[in-house]
Amino acid sequence: MNVKIQSFLFIAIFWTNVCFAQTFDSHGASEVLPVEPEPDWVFIGSSLVDVMDNKFLGIAGVSGGGMGSSFTFSADNRFMFTVESFYSRGNRGQRTDTVTIFDTSTLAPVDEIIVPPKRALMGSIDGATALSDENRFLAVFNLTPATSLSVVDIERREFVGEISTPGCSLVYPAGERRYLMLCADGGVLSVTLDEDGGELSKTRTAGYFDPEGDPITEAGVRYGDQWLFVSFGGVVHPLDVSGATLQFEDSWSLLTDEDRAENWRIAGKQHLVIHQATSRLYSLVRQSEEPLDDPGDMDGTEIWVYDLESRQRVQRLEAVPEREDEEIGATTGIGSTSGDGASGILVTQGDGSVLVTVGGGVSVRNAITGEYIHEQLKNVPGSGRLTLRNQAQ
Amino acid sequence: MRLTFLLAVLVFVFNLFSEANAESAHFNYILHCQGCHLVNGGGTSGKIPALIGVGRFLSVEGGREFLVRVPGVSGSLVNDAELAEVLNWILYEFSPDNLPRDFEPYDAEEVGRYRKDPLVDVEHAKDRLLSLIET
């Protein structure tokens, strides 16, 4: 090949690349999102979606194929945090766990805090991490299977230390610098930090729930100063975290005798959510003759809505709109469900709140009337954990 | 001579007792303990305590309670009688050489009493007992 032809080829290839690059650029312009989110922005897995306008906004590059925790946001909304695990040889080798910090405007990782490689690898469920109510210390639940918490100072971006929590698992915020954990014997553990994030005290209280007879799910919901955890048998166990000691309040049932006779049971993974302004509790339920080994493995076919003041059911909604059969399919592997309803629900908290359900696609409806806004969102992930972007609402 | 005979009878009676319980105790060990402590009770260094030689805790004050109050024992989903049984089985199986001569097996009542008071600070309690064992 002579030099002329070589030069020609080079120039041709160069310009072709430039053209392609320009074409790509004009279609793939990246946006920078405002720091203050809209009330209807929701993460489906790690994808951020405006569920009201059915607009895909971006994706955060979280590792681990959905094994990460859900996102936690800084008080000023500029950053979000999740915990990740990496092995030096991909699926084996030396393990490194990080609390990774993403910029909420670009959804790009900007920093990381290395924590002991001990965090519980348990899928994207509640209780993996908790930000204490003063928004400074993030606790990561560890399971080796010895249980402990890694405490991270998200203001100074450093690992503070580890607190052993024998026999007690998962972690939930329960006060300014306090966390709540659930124990294997049915008790609860409260862990209080000092001003620097070190261990100040631990108190274990027995008798919150019955781990053998009627265990609770991990998908508890916060209602002001109360946590509500629901048992496999549909009993709500309110736990008051306002005082110095945790108080167990009177339990009540989501299911009447009639409901039980008709074999209604709680179901779904992310099966509870509260609309705070109206005190409405949404619960996924399904019918099953046999008790469910784990309600999280089966989809809910209806959403029952309760008034938390009167503790009465006020509404029954279908879990998912009627769809063509081929659109609904059971998923397999980690996070598998029965595929005949919804596995997760979420409500947004601003004016004009919407109810989002995941199951064979994502649907959006008015949170109060139940009227559909989108029977199925287009061009967004069809499944994944739902996280409200604006948690400060 | 008479002492030897008495000992032989005692060993026989003890064997009868342990044979009767060994099967269900081993079953509960497989179901509730083996997943982490492994088939041979070896555990994983730095993560899961080994059960081999764990009988040495019984030789110091507070050790008998400690073995029940640790989270894996007190929080396990078996009743008090089953828990006493599997705990005795672990001691005979993995720690025959460390058992005190006057070792009396746990019973349901004793185990039930200790497990109601699970340890909140295991590491501290363990270090204290280990320092007693070493001296």
User: How many helical stretches of chain B?
Assistant: 7
Low-confidence stretches of chain B: none
Q: Looking at the chains present, what oligomeric state does this protein adopt?
A: heterodimer
Could you say what the CATH topology of chain B is called? Cytochrome Bc1 Complex, Chain D, domain 2
| CATH class placement of the largest domain in chain A | Mainly Beta
Mean pLDDT of chain A: 89
Any idea what the CATH architecture of the largest domain in chain A is? 7 Propeller
| Beta-strand residue percentage of chain B | under 5%
Could you describe the 3D structure shown?
The complex is a heterodimer of chains A (393) and B (135). Chain A is mostly beta strands. Chain A is built from two helices and 30 strands. In chain A, the strands form seven sheets. In chain A, strands 16, 17, 18, 19 and 20 form a five-stranded antiparallel beta sheet that branches. In chain A, strands 21, 22, 23, 24 and 25 form a five-stranded antiparallel beta sheet that branches. Chain A has a four-stranded antiparallel beta sheet with strand order 3-2-1-30, with no helix packed on it. In chain A, strand 8 (129-131) and strand 9 (137-143) form a beta hairpin. Mean pLDDT of chain A is 89; it is low at 19-25 and 326-334. Chain B has seven helices and no strands. Chain B has helices spanning 2-32, 34-37, 63-69, 71-74, 80-94, 108-115, 122-134. The model of chain B has no long low-confidence stretch (mean pLDDT 89). Chain B has a single domain (23-134), classed as Orthogonal Bundle (Cytochrome Bc1 Complex, Chain D, domain 2), CATH 1.10.760. Chain B is mainly alpha-helical. The A-B interface holds A 144-147, 164, 166-168, 183-185, 187, 189, 202-204, 206, 211-212 and B 36, 47-48, 70-72, 74-77, 115-116, 118-123.
